[in-house]
């Protein structure tokens, strides 16, 4: 049995991307509402206690994100749908690269269909009717989990989607819209004092979280992920060359299994040792059956990762990130939490 609270909001189900535009082709979405439902079902069966998310004001969101990004996400669907465009989801076609405008601030485009290019960095991360409500609810789920830990729970789990770790202060991508993990870390820091640590075990580099806390020593960031140099998202960063005293990337070769992955998790846990509290950015897409990564971690491996992180003995907020195999996502999360909360 799993004795720990998990936070839930039905609003997280309202984001239905339906598709991802990959190399110019419309492919089926992988980050679907059924993910969260599968996790919830497994948690309930394991005996974890569901806690409804509590609404929080925008202050923690605005401490992490550019107000212009937040306003865009809040209004993008209404503007897009009113413009009678041929796509049923908000998708960029022109990108406001800094070099395009010589580093000067780009104009806010008059054309609604050009605006996503101010904020989106890929074509995979579509916005539809419920996207804002779900992304904002995911933040509330994460912040409610922080409240539980600040109130004395040793471990609380935020069962949220869409995920967040790919979002920087001002740009979104990688199936993510608001950085739930970074918002939770900022709030946890305010509540328990620093430093706090973020250990990200999602199969993909936590690039957004890294960039948000870059150059700070009060939020330590570690990410264990498939080597972007081997051809994997986010491609442009996530290398060991970005490491410093407060940021650790451990890129792993495709096909890495439990042994190499758990060594990397141990190294990441060492960075977190000085912390007063821990956020685990829990992507379970490093698992062998996951369609979105070539890592080959087993369910027992995830349980052991939970145990390693639990041994730090820190107040811990676990925030859901990726994981796309609907048949195994629930057991993977349950086993990780069982290792952690044991
Ligand atoms: C939170 C998270 O795990 N985000 C993952 C983002 C990585 N997506 C990159 C997708 C690369 C192409 N995959 C083809 C699937 C087409 N549906
Ligand atoms: Zn991922």
Strand order of the largest sheet: 4-1-5-10-9-6-7-8
Oligomeric form:
single chain
Q: Give the biggest sheet.
A: 8 strands, parallel
Strand fraction equals: 5-15%
How many β-strands, per DSSP? 10
Would you tell me the overall average pLDDT?
98
Summary, kept brief:
The protein has 342 residues and is α/β, with parallel strands linked by helices. 34% of the residues lie in helices and 15% in strands. An eight-stranded parallel β-sheet has the order 4-1-5-10-9-6-7-8, sandwiched between helices. Strands 2-3 form a two-stranded antiparallel sheet.
Characterize the structure shown.
By secondary structure, the protein is an alpha/beta fold. Helix content is 34%, strand content 15%. An eight-stranded parallel sheet has the order 4-1-5-10-9-6-7-8, with helices on both faces. A two-stranded antiparallel sheet has the order 2-3. It starts with a strand and ends with a helix. The model has no long low-confidence stretch (mean pLDDT 98).
Features:
globular, binds zinc ion, 8-stranded parallel beta sheet, 342 residues, two-stranded antiparallel ribbon, binds N-[3-({4-[(3-aminopropyl)amino]butyl}amino)propyl]acetamide, single chain, alpha/beta
Task: Set out the fold topology.
Blueprint: E1 5-8, E2 19-22, E3 25-28, H1 33-46, E4 49-52, H2 59-64, H3 67-82, H4 131-150, E5 155-158, H5 180-192, E6 196-200, H6 207-212, E7 219-226, E8 247-252, H7 258-272, E9 277-282, H8 299-310, E10 316-320, H9 329-341
Parallel strand pairs: 1-4, 1-5, 5-10, 6-7, 6-9, 7-8, 9-10
Antiparallel strand pairs: 2-3
The structure holds N-[3-({4-[(3-aminopropyl)amino]butyl}amino)propyl]acetamide and zinc ion.
Zinc ion binds at residues 202-204, 283, 285, 322.
């Amino acid at each position: 049995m799993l004795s720990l609270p998990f936070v839930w909001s039905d609003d997280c189900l309202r984001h239905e991307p339906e598709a991802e535009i990959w190399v110019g082709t419309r492919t089926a979405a992988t980050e679907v509402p059924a993910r969260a439902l599968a996790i919830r079902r497994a948690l309930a069966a394991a005996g974890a206690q569901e806690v409804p998310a509590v609404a929080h004001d925008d202050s923690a969101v605005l401490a992490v994100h550019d107000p212009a990004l937040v306003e865009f996400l809040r209004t993008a669907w209404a503007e897009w749908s009113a413009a009678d465009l041929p796509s049923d989801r908000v998708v960029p076609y022109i990108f406001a690269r800094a070099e395009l405008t010589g580093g000067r601030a780009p104009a806010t485009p008059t054309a609604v269909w050009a605006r996503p290019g101010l904020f989106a960095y890929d074509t995979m991360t579509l916005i539809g009717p419920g996207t804002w409500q779900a992304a904002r609810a995911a933040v509330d789920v994460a912040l409610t989990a922080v409240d539980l830990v600040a109130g004395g729970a040793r471990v609380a789990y935020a069962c949220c989607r869409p995920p967040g770790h790919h979002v920087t202060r001002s740009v979104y991508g990688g199936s993510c819209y608001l950085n739930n993990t970074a918002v939770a870390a900022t709030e946890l820091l305010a509540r328990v004092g620093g430093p706090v640590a973020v250990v990200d075990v999602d199969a993909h580099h936590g690039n957004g979280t890294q960039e948000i806390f870059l150059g700070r020593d009060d939020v330590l960031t570690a990410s264990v992920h498939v080597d972007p140099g081997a051809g994997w998202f986010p491609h442009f960063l996530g290398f060991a060359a970005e490491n410093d005293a407060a940021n650790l990337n451990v890129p792993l070769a495709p096909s890495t299994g439990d042994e190499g992955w758990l060594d990397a998790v141990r190294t990441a846990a060492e960075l977190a040792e000085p912390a007063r509290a821990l956020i685990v950015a829990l992507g379970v897409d490093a698992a062998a059956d996951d369609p979105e990564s070539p890592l080959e971690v087993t369910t027992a491996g995830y349980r052991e990762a939970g145990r390693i992180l639990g041994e730090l003995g820190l107040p811990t907020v676990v925030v859901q990130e990726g994981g796309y195999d609907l048949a195994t996502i629930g057991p993977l999360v349950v086993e990780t939490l069982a290792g952690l909360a044991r």
